[in-house]
Amino acid sequence: GLDVEIVPVVFITVEALRLDKPLGERIVKRVDDMCRANGIKYKEIQLDCDWTKETKHMFFSLCQEVKQMLHEKKLGLSATIRLHQLRDTLPDIDYGVLMLYNTENLRDYKVKNSILNSQVVKEYMRHARSDKHLDFAYPTYEWTLWFKGNKFMGILTQSDTARHEGILRHETSDFTEIMKAKNAIKQDLKDID
């Protein structure tokens, strides 16, 4: 079989954070149960949350709690990091994964390609700071967005595209843009691989 490392990722909504319940233990137990039931070995858990200034303290304390539990089991904790979160301090994690995709609003009909715009990445990187090691996640997907006038109607599958009236915007993960984004990061975060 393929030698693939599986990293369980848990998406945490802001609503879940606001419940102010002890989520950490439940997350670790649920992931462990699911992985054992499916014969999956894992070395870390990754938390994915679009935290903001208002909710960051809740997410940060969750990270602390989960990291402590995982370290006791000799496991690690990582978290996804969105570009706008780089302007802030990062949570207590072993490392972050910087999401270099969905750089612009897909619902905006004026945007050329919402998947990745290296100029947007460059702008964010000008104010970036990081005291944590970062890995980078680049896009490898494409989609077709459907607009009626300037109103976003949805994301279409390939079989759908012929049946809809309006503007269709096909977006891809352009290799040149990925390389430009990579270079922008290398310039601004020199100490990070």
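[next item in queue]
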Amino acid sequence: VAAACGLSVGSIYVHFKSKDEILHAAIRRSNQRMESGEFFRQFGDPGDFLKMMERLLRYFDQMGDDPVHSADLEIMLLARHDATLRKEIEINQKARFDFIRECASLIPGAKRLDKATLDAFAATVVALMTDADQRALAGIDVQRALKMTAIRNLMKALLSGI
């Protein structure tokens, strides 16, 4: 971390008391990007749900080889024993759900759906994205085409009930 910031190890500890504090600060920054929507804006117009999901899945495909992204799995394991870290991961997961739900609410016809139905749809899409993320972390195929087919079929089923 120090080398990436262009600092000495000692300089890092002027700002942070421990490695845990550095980790928590990095996750808080990530959460701020998620909650503000900054992270998701890179995937395009939220009004084009399918295109956004395709781009997000493509992102997971590419992240499988990124060493920073692979640290996510280790962070998840650390969270089992760190209540603060667990809370920060919960914030991150909520931001992911809120974003997907917001995009889903922009699907033509979605305004006529009740909250529970839209929430269930968003939760299902989040589960597909989480699976893609975990697959990327493990270095295995994200199954982008299969997930997009599932999302399209979910949308058809959702909208046919209107």
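[queue empty]
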